[in-house]
Write a structure and sequence with these properties.
Chain A has nine helices and ten strands. Chain A is globular, with a radius of gyration of 18 Å. Helix content of chain A is about 40%, strand content about 25%. Chain B is mainly alpha-helical and about 400 residues long. In chain B, strand 1, helix 3 and strand 2 form a beta-alpha-beta unit. The chains are: A alpha/beta (about 240), B mainly alpha (about 400). The interface between A and B is medium-sized, with 33 and 25 residues.
Chain lengths: ~240, ~400
Amino acid sequence: MIDVENLSKRFGAVQALDGVSFAAHDGRITGLLGPNGAGKSTTLRILSTVLSPSSGRARIGGTDLATSPLAARRLLGVLPHGSGLYPQLTARENIEYYGRLHGLDEALLAKRADALIARLDLGAIAGRKAKGFSQGERTKVALARALVHDPQHLLLDEPTSGLDVMATRHLRDWLRELRAQGRCVLLSSHVMQEVEALVDDLVIIAGGRVTLAGTPAELSQRFPGRSLEEIFVTAVSGAEHASE
Amino acid sequence: MMRTLLTVCRKEIVETLRDRRTLFSLLLGPLLGPVLFVAIINVAVSRNLSALDEPLDLPIVGAERAPNLMAFLSARGLHATATPKLRNVDDVAAAVARGDYDVAVVIDERYDEDFGTDRAARVTVVFDRSKSRAQSKIQRVQGTVESYGQQVGTLRLVANGVSPSLLRPLLVDELDVSTPAGRSVLMLGVLTYFLLFATLTGGLHLAIDTTAGERERKSLEPLLTLPVTRASLLLGKMTATVCYMLVSLALTLAAFTVALTHVPLERLGMSSSFDAATALAAFVVLCPFAPLGAALMTTVASFTKTYREAQTYLTFILLIPTLPLMFAALLNVEPELKLMWIPSLSQHLLITSLIKAQPLDWTFVAISAASSLALGVVLGWLAIRLYEREAILG
């Protein structure tokens, strides 16, 4: 479980996050939704410990990020925006590099890499250099890389952007599978349609604040007769007016 | 920590090996430098020396008026060419000025009248001093004509019962104590520059690619989410950089050792003591410079946002180690204990000693290594601190 309490982050004069609180539970897919610049990436970067918050706290699986960031990172798989693969390494080498840095021994690493390559259907490209991969292939390899140490928590930054229809479908299937395994999945997006069929919980963020949160069913109940898309637009524009 | 360092180092080395273009430029630099160096020396040597033994044809106007002089010149390889168009000094001067000839001789019309009287017979050597290519020819012709005059003069004094030594109250001896190896230092002094340069360029790509390049490709951020310290990541990257720098240095030294056997240094009165043992000693002396260079380049690249930007800055960085070398060349400094504290200058002085075939003072070597490594540690620490900033993500 990912637990975020009153998180704030300031870059110079810009208040990127202003008291963000939410929780993402095990066995559920949580969607962090908001327009560009709302603070989604900042939140995910704080959770993946590459940034530290100005105030507030965050825990991953009960481990406080501020006090034990290395321990928290072990519990976490990260799919960054843009795959960030090494173009001169093969798909398998990209996966294995992260496994080694996670401290896996070679036997376990080979077993995990084989399993992920089989599950994500990467057999055909496992031995090829990443520089020629399509966006869909890159996302698959990056996902395998993020899962190589079998993390309980998975952070995905705009995972569906740039993917074609089929690749998006596959990605959704895998995320559902990870949920079924009891993992805690947190993904960000700025397009409601892309995630509404996938997420169990929605956290709508705008202007560095959480403006609305709940399950899709709860939100539909609170705003009867309106689509999730309309609810999202209202929640976002309300915050923009408030911050003006 | 150590395992992370080795994993990162291995990955960076493999990744660079895969990149053909980078690898090609890594190999080209160390091999091209020595080849160019040897080519330049060979041109310089042949321009200075080859002319001395070979026959030289030159226009001599009025050769028929001085048969003895002609015989003297001919015996020393200077032969008159037939030039019916040239009749007097003005014609010859115009021809030389036009660049038709490098040097020419005009025997005065009254030469055979004046020769043997108390009037000096006139011989004019025509040349263009501004032509650097012709300098050795000019000196050779001037010297040969001069020595004919002295020989004739000496014979005349002897014929009159006067000792020729009366005209030479001073006996000026030249005693040059520079060793042949010492003389070659002038020309081989530029060698250290090549070596330092090759060491730095060997690591240039990695220093940039592992920092600014990784950030530009957006692979840095996920890397920083792994349960390893940034210090161990960066140390792994710098270790890989040092490996490539040492390979580049070794290749350059090997290429120089081979190439210098093809330089006719003996013909310049120099001896090249640059054998495999010297190369090995030079490698040992230069080794501590590699971590310093790697840390310096990594630190600078850490400030930059893109590969291209880093490349621009690092081109200037490559000049920094040459500054002490220029200082050394201008002031003609000798190896001293206190100078061993200055990285790059200390290595330059030590390698110069090696080329002079002077014994290495191991205290000097130790201080040179210690000062370079100490500065490398400071810069490495700075690079790690830069990596621990949030701004590293750009």
